[in-house]
Specification:
346 residues; alpha/beta; D-Amino Acid Oxidase, Chain A, domain 2; 2 domains; 11 helices; oxidoreductase; 2-polyprenyl-6-methoxyphenol hydroxylase; monooxygenase; FAD-dep_Monooxygenase_BioMet
């Protein structure tokens, strides 16, 4: 019997556990939280991520819960559209993180909740998989040193608002942006990303008074932004400082591998973090193959690393570039050219 220990019961950990279990592996999943979360923002499942969810067995549940979105658009603060509509080459499904995790958990082996991991000593499994996020403990073992996340110099405020939409819309202005996307449960998802240096003097704190903060930050912006701000559920708002990782020289050491945010945590500006995590899970399961197939596990993990390390890092770099482009107060013409280039490959 081939055995795997997965540290982290989030998107990557659950997807990998489900895929390996389908291949006959005996899998243990350890998660430090006491239970699955019941709050979280909307996530976009791009077509390639939906293909992984098909392999996992969660795609039907995701489609039943989520909202099908095929159009995205970027607009100026005044509402003028920048560049063409971005039409997906296949259905992109948006749903909240809790509902996605529930769909994945229904396909995975039982998770051992309330199990924090401080190191990987004592694990005797054939492979150990670090799916433990941006603050990964397993990453320290793989690299032989601590690698701290990098602050991106921007803050994010996210939440939900009653309503419905089938279009992803993002408004760009100097030092700040505002987004509105579909999500499940008769809600829309909204988010604000901003350079703290762009906050007007006297603006309320975003963590304690999110509505008045947003009113001050987006005063005079397009009417849809103003309507969304007035309708937000303030209790659902979450404020955090955006971070990513530097490019890691490796994501595998011996029989230990990193996936998802442990390997390539990225800025949220492309909406690709969860998708890249699912692609990691599929590549890792494919490289390891069916239980008892006689593959050398270290060789299989090196094949996974060859496929996914640079791929995840490219998306991480593009997300960072997109963040800078969206928030710049200068060079508007190059900014719009970058947007058109992104639309061409979306």
């Amino acid at each position: 019997m081939s055995t795997a220990a997965i540290i982290g019961g989030g998107i990557g950990g659950l997807a990998t556990a489900a895929l390996l279990t389908r291949q006959g592996w005996e899998v243990e999943v350890l998660e430090r939280a006491a239970r699955l979360p019941d709050t979280g923002t909307a996530l976009g499942m791009w077509p390639e991520a939906m293909a992984v969810l098909e392999q996992v067995g969660a795609a039907d549940a995701v489609r039943a819960i989520g909202i099908d979105q095929r159009i995205a658009e970027i607009r100026s603060a005044s509402g003028h559209r920048l560049g063409p509509e971005i039409r997906a080459r296949g259905a992109t499904v948006l749903l909240s993180r809790p509902r996605l995790l529930e769909a994945l958990a229904a396909c995975a082996p039982a998770v051992r909740f309330g199990e924090p991991c401080t190191g990987i000593d004592g694990f005797e499994h054939d492979v150990v998989i670090g799916a433990d996020g941006i603050g990964s403990v397993v990453r320290t073992h793989v690299l032989g040193r601590v690698v701290q996340p990098r602050p991106l110099g921007v803050d994010v405020l996210i939440g939900r608002c009653p309503g419905e939409t089938d279009t992803f819309t993002e408004y760009w202005g100097p030092g700040r942006l505002f987004g509105v996307t579909p999500r499940d449960g008769d809600y829309i998802n909204w988010y604000s990303e901003f350079d703290p240096r762009a906050i007007p003097a006297g603006t309320p704190d975003p963590g304690t008074d999110p509505r008045d903060f947003l009113r001050a930050m987006y005063h005079g912006w397009d009417r849809r932004v103003a309507r969304t701000i007035e309708g937000i559920e303030a209790a659902s708002a979450l404020h955090y400082h955006s971070r990513d990782l530097p490019r890691l020289p490796r994501i595998v050491r011996g029989n230990v591998a990193l996936i998802g945010d442990a390997a390539h945590a990225m800025a949220p500006n492309l909406g690709r973090g969860a998708c890249e995590t699912l692609l990691d899970a599929a590549a890792l399961a494919t490289a390891l193959g069916p239980a008892g197939a006689g593959r050398d596990h270290a060789d299989a993990l090196r094949a996974y690393e060859s496929e996914r390390r640079r791929a995840g890092q490219r998306t991480m770099l593009l997300s960072r570039m997109m963040r800078h482009t969206a928030l710049t107060a200068r060079l508007r013409t190059p900014r719009d050219l970058v947007l058109r280039a992104v639309a061409a490959v979306a």
